[in-house]
Amino acid sequence: MAAVSNALIVGAGTSGLALAVLLAREGVKVEVAEIRPDAQALGSGITLQGNALRVLRELGVWEEVERSCFPFDSLGIRTPDGSLVAEIPDARMGGPDLPATVGMNRPELAAILTRAARAAGADLRYGLTVEELHDRGESVRVELSDGTAAHYDLVVGADGIRSSVRAMIGIDTEPEPTGMGIWRIHTRRPASVQRTDLVYGGPCFIAGYCPTGPDTMYAYLVEKARTDTDFTERERAEHMTELSRGYGGVWDEIRDDIAASDRVNYTWFESLLVERPWNRGRTVLIGDAAHACPPTLAQGAAQGLEDALVLAEMVLAADTPDQPLFDAFTDRRLARARTVVESSVTLAQWQLDGVRDADVPGLMREVSTMLTELP
To answer: First and final CA of the chain: distance in angstroms?
Structure first.
């Protein structure tokens, strides 16, 4: 018998929806509370490596993802003028029968996971969040923003890097800026874009792009974090356009698209790592609520998906959601998440410090080797 009969998952992002699928299809009554008013996901593109695809296959959605994504098996390194310097094979971390990496539209991934969660029987409730949590030992009493209250065997905070659940259970870890900021645009894909290509140099720390579908891609420029972030839509487009003038090749093809866009996005790189344990009583954190990293390794969503897979496996195999269960969950996840967070931050810091002899390929290879192993 599973350790829980009902569960509340706070947050309908990648981690929360994945966990909802895994628990609900095994008969757990799952409710998902999402503060956003509907299922429409924000964001542009997302990069998913093999270890993320491995979890998506376990969720039963890989075939649908495969039809929507753009797969590739190598990483290109280019000079600011667009010349190719190196083509590095990507490790197939999910196994030989899955691509090394895919890019896809983030809202499409969200839509696929939303449909899967509903099909599994999860109750997705939008425009709703948690106001108070009261752990009673045998259950958690949850007071919700619509004025209702209910008891749950398990509460999961999957509500992101600024998790309100994390604060409610007394964990005061906060995200820390890494000193970098990223400009992103989702735009048309030139035919020459067949994978992620990166430029280290020019006016930015990193200039890159990733195909997300037959006709789409996202492009990004990473510079030192700005404190004057109150940009208008026009100012965002103008600034990204000016930064892009330091790059040739594909950037020459998309520059006009950047200038005409009203959807240029700017955010800081941040990191977060909650030390053990990731729970207080029967409330536990997963995904960005427990660990978050700058996208230098493209592992944020993948690590959240792994959290969901491991937690579901352990909860479904246990008799009681007690502290030994949560300790064992943290044991399986913390060291792996720590390596990803610290390595992602290290890659960013090397850029900030201008370290010229940094072994970037070596660090990426070391992390890839670890992530090829099952979580």
So the answer is: 24
Specify the length of the chain in residues.
375
- What is the C-alpha to C-alpha distance for residues 265 and 112, in angstroms, rounded to an integer? 24
Query: Does pTM top 0.90 for this prediction?
Result: yes
Condensed to tens digits (0 to 9), the pLDDT of residues 40-82 reads: 766 779 999 999 999 999 999 999 999 999 999 999 999 999 9
Tell me the C-alpha distance between 219 and 188, whole Å: 10
**243 near 203, Cβ under 8 Å?**
yes
Structure confidence by residue, pLDDT tens digits, 196-212: 999 999 999 999 999 99
- Write down the pLDDT at residue 227: 86
* Interatomic CA distance for residues 255 and 184, integer angstroms: 12
Please say whether the dihedral angle defined by the alpha carbons of residues 214, 56, 272 and 198, taken in this order, is positive or negative. negative
Above pLDDT 70, what percent of the chain? 99
The string of DSSP letters for 25-40 reads TTT-EEEEEESSSSSP
Cα 71–Cα 83–Cα 203 angle in degrees, nearest 5: 95
3-state secondary structure of 117: helix
Residue among 369, 308, 337, 262 nearest 55 (CA)? 308
* Alpha carbons 109 and 36: distance in angstroms, whole number: 17
Ramachandran angles phi, psi of 327, nearest 5°: -65, -40
Q: Return the number of other C-beta atoms located less than 10 Å from residue 352's C-beta.
A: 14
β-strand partners of 292: 272
Alpha helical stretches, state H, the chain: 14-24, 50-59, 62-68, 106-120, 164-168, 233-244, 250-260, 300-317, 323-353, 360-372
